[in-house]
Amino acid sequence: MHKVVFVTGNEGKFAEVRDILKTFGIEVIQDKNGYPELQEDELEPIAAYGAQYVANKLKMPAIVDDSGIFIKALNGFPGPYSRFVEDRLGNPKVLKLMEGETDRTAYFKTVIGYCEPGKEPLVFPGVVEGKIAYEERGTGGFGYDPIFEYQGITFGELGDAEKNKVSHRRRAIDSFLEWFKDKLEKS
Ligand SMILES: O=c1[nH]c(=O)c2ncn([C@@H]3O[C@H](COP(=O)(O)OP(=O)(O)OP(=O)(O)O)[C@@H](O)[C@H]3O)c2[nH]1
Ligand SMILES: [Mg+2]
C-alpha cells in the first residue's frame, strides 16, 4: 500500500483526506508538527511553501492542505485568514458580519500542496460554491461547515461521507490523484 505523510494539526481535515485516499488504496499518515504558514492573499503560495518545507524537513514526500472560506459580500474575507477568524470570532460573529447582506454567495477552497525532497512543490486547488446560511445548522464536519450551504443543505447537516463526495477538499484531492496516479502505476 502506498503511504503519504499529511502535515496538519486539523483532525477534521486529516479524517477527510484519510477517508478519501483510502478508497484509492493510499494510506495517509498524520504529522502534527506543523509548518510555517506564509501570510499571503492566496492559498497556493502558502500550500506550496509549506509542502516544500515539510518534504525537505521530513526527507520524504509530503502533502499539506491550506483552506479557507471566501465570502463575496465581505470581499473574499476571511479567505487565507480563515483559521484566525474561526479562532477569534467563530461562526456566530461571522453571521453577525453578514447581517443585512442578501448576497450570501461564498466558496470554500482547498489547495493541496505536494512536494518531494529537493524538488519543486506542486499545488492542486479545489473549490465548491455555496451560500452563507442565516444560522448555524447541523453538527457534522468542522469549522465553518454549519454555516456553509451547498444546494440548500449545510455541510454540517450533510454528513461526512456525502461532504467527501462534493467538497472543495475532495475536488483538490481528485486533482492531486489525477497527477499522482501515474506515479502509482509506475511504482
Ligand atoms: O467548515 C469548514 N469546512 C472545511 O472543509 C474546512 N477546511 C478548512 N476549514 C477551516 O478553514 C481554516 C483553514 O485554515 P488552515 O488551512 O490553516 O487549517 P488549520 O490551521 O486548521 O490546520 P493546518 O492544516 O494548517 O494544521 C480553519 O479554520 C479550518 O477549520 C474548514 N471549515
Ligand atoms: Mg493552519
Automatic annotation (TrEMBL):
Binds 1 Mg(2+) ion per subunit. The active site is at D66. Keywords: Hydrolase, Magnesium, Metal-binding, Nucleotide metabolism, Nucleotide-binding. It catalyses: ITP + H2O = IMP + diphosphate + H(+); dITP + H2O = dIMP + diphosphate + H(+); XTP + H2O = XMP + diphosphate + H(+). It comes from the Archaea. InterPro entries: dITP/XTP_pyrophosphatase, ITPase-like_fam, RdgB/HAM1. GO terms for cellular component: cytoplasm. GO terms for molecular function: dITP diphosphatase activity; ITP diphosphatase activity; metal ion binding; nucleotide binding; ribonucleoside triphosphate phosphatase activity; XTP diphosphatase activity. GO terms for biological process: nucleotide metabolic process; purine nucleoside triphosphate catabolic process. Its cofactor is Mg(2+). Signal peptide: none annotated. Substrate binds at T8, G9, N10, E11, G12, K13, S67, F142, G143, Y144, D145, K163, H168, R169. Mg(2+) binds at E37, D66. Its EC number is 3.6.1.66. Belongs to the HAM1 NTPase family. Pyrophosphatase that catalyzes the hydrolysis of nucleoside triphosphates to their monophosphate derivatives, with a high preference for the non-canonical purine nucleotides XTP (xanthosine triphosphate), dITP (deoxyinosine triphosphate) and ITP. Seems to function as a house-cleaning enzyme that removes non-canonical purine nucleotides from the nucleotide pool, thus preventing their incorporation into DNA/RNA and avoiding chromosomal lesions. PANTHER family: INOSINE TRIPHOSPHATE PYROPHOSPHATASE, INOSINE TRIPHOSPHATE PYROPHOSPHATASE/HAM1 PROTEIN. Homodimer. This is dITP/XTP pyrophosphatase. It comes from Methanosarcina flavescens. The lineage of its organism: Archaea, Methanobacteriati, Methanobacteriota, Stenosarchaea group, Methanomicrobia.
